[in-house]
């Protein structure tokens, strides 16, 4: 936990507030009013990001004075941000998360009183801990040919170690007993497998917590069949994004799903939901997700009493049947403002039917900041995959490439199309595209390919074909750093 909070001259901890877009200002104001009513020593510095900032011509959607404020306060309470069509290429949310390396996204869901769902009575109380800055959401994409797109899924050992340690530390801080790690390691053995292997290694340091790996699709199946079996689920960025909307649905919807984006320096607290523009300014949406995000923020800032008071007041309000439109429908719904007023009037009351956790301060894991986090004792380059755009059939292209490599230190091994070997033919019926990956291996099976051999090969290929991408086939400490194509021996 960061103790470097910015203290105002009045002795209050300063928080950067970003009201956001659509329903953002309504839910953020609701949470602010409730916090103010607790008397917690919190002060606000309001800054902007999102639609209005894109429209000012700032391509990131985040203003420089917002960045400066976050650097100073290190704590953000934020409403959802939209990306207006035609402005900016990147989401301002993702920019904020990545700028401040908030690598862990904590998304708790808990069954709430008075919210009827098909799962009511099952005691759902779980947390998705989602890696927040790597994976496909880094948004590194390339058009490889006019008709074939690529998105890079980069997963680092360092990133895995940070998120896994955070999941275990978070479990300890909330007195939770079990951590599942959900991956697709059976298919993506290197990327998703990196999280699985790291999890299994680091779990040994937390013998007080039960640990179990689960394949992510089965995890989704189990979440719907028996959600009560889960406590903490740690997972990669995209898996976590999808799963946490699913878990929100289990307890009544996005109106109840809070989140915290945690990093070593900065923490950003926001609802899981977006800006729901159709409800903007209608004073009808449910502010609970943002209020519970603010509760997480107060705990992060060691304001345990205010957090406890608000959590009880929300529960007492729900138990009393005061609900917004998303829960009760139009009949009997109260406005966002009236809901907020009721929570404020319930501050100080305690629910008897609900147990509020005994929270302990969260120890943010300290992981080395070394860039070369993992080093190999031995390494060599065994060959190269050259990605080629071609309208030729695999036989013709394969024969041409075999000819191209003649007389070089490399030989042509095979052609793959979207990961399946298509030449030499296995007799498979594959619908090929114009995007091929041609594998060339060194003639010396234990050799180390020089860059000059690579450049020579590329020059030869370039004379006859259009290539757009290469991948060196690296071997680290004797382990292959590349996968084989389906059908490759
Ligand atoms: P959304 O804003 O989350 O809304 C989806 C639906 O969820 C709403 O139509 C509504 O369902 C329900 N909902 C969301 N918040 C609610 C609340 N507080 N109370 C009650 N119901 C609520 O998702 P979206 O429509 O896909 O995205 C809209 C914009 O938000 C996009 O520009 C997107 O990029 C952005 N976004 C931002 C963030 C963020 O800032 N962290 C996250 C997600 C999306 P019903 O229609 O059934 O009433």
**Class based on secondary structure composition and strand pairing:** alpha/beta
Share of helix among residues?
Answer: 25-40%
Kindly estimate the percentage of residues that lie in beta strands according to DSSP: 15-25%
Q: Ends: how far apart?
A: 50 Å
Overall outline: elongated
| Largest sheet data | 10 strands, mixed
Number of helical stretches of at least 4 residues: 14
Question: What's the β-strand tally?
Answer: 18
Low-confidence stretches: none
Ligands present: NADP nicotinamide-adenine-dinucleotide phosphate
Task: Output mean pLDDT.
Answer: 94
Q: Record the strand order, biggest sheet.
A: 2-1-3-12-11-4-5-10-8-9
Radius of gyration over C-alpha positions, nearest whole angstrom: 26 Å
Task: Write a compact overview of the structure shown.
By secondary structure, the protein is α/β, with parallel strands linked by helices. The chain has helices spanning 24-38, 51-55, 64-73, 92-99, 157-173, 191-203, 216-225, 237-250, 288-300, 304-319, 325-328, 336-345, 394-405, 451-464, and strands at residues 13-18, 42-46, 75-78, 104-110, 125-131, 141-145, 148-151, 178-183, 210-215, 232-235, 258-262, 267-271, 379-389, 410-417, 420-423, 435-442, 466-476, 479-480. The relative contact order is 0.12.
Describe this structure in words.
This protein is elongated. Helix 10 crosses helix 12. It is built from 14 helices and 18 strands. The strands form 3 sheets. It has a 10-stranded mixed beta sheet, with helices on both faces. The longest helix has 17 residues. By secondary structure, the protein is of the alpha/beta class. The site of NADP nicotinamide-adenine-dinucleotide phosphate (NAP) has 19 residues, from loops.
């Amino acid at each position: 936990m960061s103790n470097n909070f910015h203290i105002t001259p009045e002795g209050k901890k300063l928080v950067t507030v970003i009201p956001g877009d659509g329903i953002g200002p309504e839910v953020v104001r609701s949470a602010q009013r409730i916090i103010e009513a607790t008397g917690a020593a919190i002060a606000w510095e309001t800054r902007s990001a999102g639609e209005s900032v894109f429209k000012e011509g700032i391509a990131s959607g985040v203003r420089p004075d917002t960045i400066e404020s976050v650097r100073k306060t290190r704590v953000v309470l934020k409403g959802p941000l939209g990306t207006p069509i035609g402005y900016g290429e990147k989401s301002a949310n993702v920019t904020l998360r990545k700028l401040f390396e908030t690598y862990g996204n904590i998304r708790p869901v808990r069954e709430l009183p008075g919210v009827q769902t098909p799962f009511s009575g099952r005691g759902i109380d779980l947390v998705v801990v989602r890696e927040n800055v790597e994976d496909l959401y880094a948004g590194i994409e390339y058009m490889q040919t006019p008709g074939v797109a690529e998105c890079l899924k980069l997963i680092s050992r360092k990133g895995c170690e940070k998120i896994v340690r955070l999941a275990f530390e978070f479990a300890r801080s909330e007195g939770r007993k079990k951590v599942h790690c959900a991956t697709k390691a059976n298919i993506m053995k290197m990327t998703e497998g990196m999280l699985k292997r790291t999890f299994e290694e680091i779990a040994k340091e937390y013998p007080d917590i039960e640990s179990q790996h689960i394949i992510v699709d089965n995890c989704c199946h189990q979440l719907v069949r028996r959600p009560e079996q889960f406590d903490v689920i740690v997972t990669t960025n995209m898996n976590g994004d999808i799963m946490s909307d699913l878990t929100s649905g289990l307890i009544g919807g996005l109106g109840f799903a809070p989140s915290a984006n945690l990093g070593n320096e900065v923490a950003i607290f926001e609802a899981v939901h977006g800006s729901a523009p159709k409800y903007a300014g209608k004073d009808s949406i449910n502010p609970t997700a943002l209020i519970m995000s603010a509760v997480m923020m107060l705990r992060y800032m060691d304001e345990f009493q205010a957090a406890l008071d608000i959590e009880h007041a929300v529960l007492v309000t729900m138990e009393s049947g005061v609900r917004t439109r998303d829960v009760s429908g139009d009949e009997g719904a109260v406005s966002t403002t009236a809901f907020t007023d009721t929570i404020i009037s319930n501050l100080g009351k305690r629910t008897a039917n609900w147990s509020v956790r005994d929270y302990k301060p969260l120890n943010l894991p300290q992981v080395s900041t070394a860039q070369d986090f993992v080093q190999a004792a031995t390494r060599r380059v065994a060959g190269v995959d050259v990605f080629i755009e071609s309208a030729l059939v695999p036989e013709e292209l394969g024969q041409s490439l075999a000819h191209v490599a003649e007389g070089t230190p490399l030989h042509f091994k095979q052609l793959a199309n979207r990961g399946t070997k298509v030449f030499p033919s296995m007799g498979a019926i594959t619908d090929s595209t114009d995007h091929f990956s041609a594998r060339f291996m060194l003639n010396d099976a234990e050799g180390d390919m020089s860059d000059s051999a690579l450049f020579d090969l590329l020059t030869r290929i370039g004379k006859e074909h259009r290539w757009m991408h290469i991948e060196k086939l690296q071997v680290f400490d004797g382990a292959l750093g590349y996968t084989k194509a389906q059908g490759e021996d």
